[in-house]
């Protein structure tokens, strides 16, 4: 797999997935964040270069 996506709540890793399609991984990260609570953030990293390809961050609704 070319990319790894990781989703965090605070400093805690809540989900991780590998794949070759950045858009599908990004959609998966957003879905994981919607299932979580609190402030979620995540990134997609190229496994070969360790370059961060895409990131996201949510805020909790109060």
Describe the structure.
This protein is α+β, with helices and mostly antiparallel strands and about 60 residues long. The chain has one domain. Helices cover about 25% and strands about 45% of the residues. The protein has one helix at about 20-35, and strands at about 5-10, 10-20, 40-45, 50-55. A 4-stranded antiparallel sheet has the order 2-1-3-4, covered by helices on one side. Strand 1 (about 5-10) and strand 2 (about 10-20) form a beta hairpin. The mean pLDDT is about 90.
Whole-angstrom Rg = 11 Å
Q: Strand sequence of the main sheet, in spatial order? A: 2-1-3-4
Number of strands: 4
Please tell me the overall pLDDT. 90
- Our measurement of the CA-to-CA distance between the termini, rounded to an integer number of angstroms, reads 38 Å
Strand fraction equals over 45%
Specify the helix fraction band: 10-25%
Low-confidence stretches: none
Summarize the topology:
Layout: E1 3-9, E2 12-19, H1 22-35, E3 40-46, E4 52-57
Name the features.
globular; about 60 residues; about 45% strand; alpha+beta
How is this structure best summarized?
23% of the residues lie in helices and 45% in strands.
């Amino acid at each position: 797999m070319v990319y790894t996506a990781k989703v965090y709540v605070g400093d805690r890793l809540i989900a991780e997935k590998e794949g070759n399609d950045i858009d599908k991984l990004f959609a998966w990260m957003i879905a994981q964040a919607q299932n979580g609570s609190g402030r979620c953030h995540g990134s997609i990293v190229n496994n070969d270069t360790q370059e961060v390809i895409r990131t996201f961050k949510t805020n909790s609704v109060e």
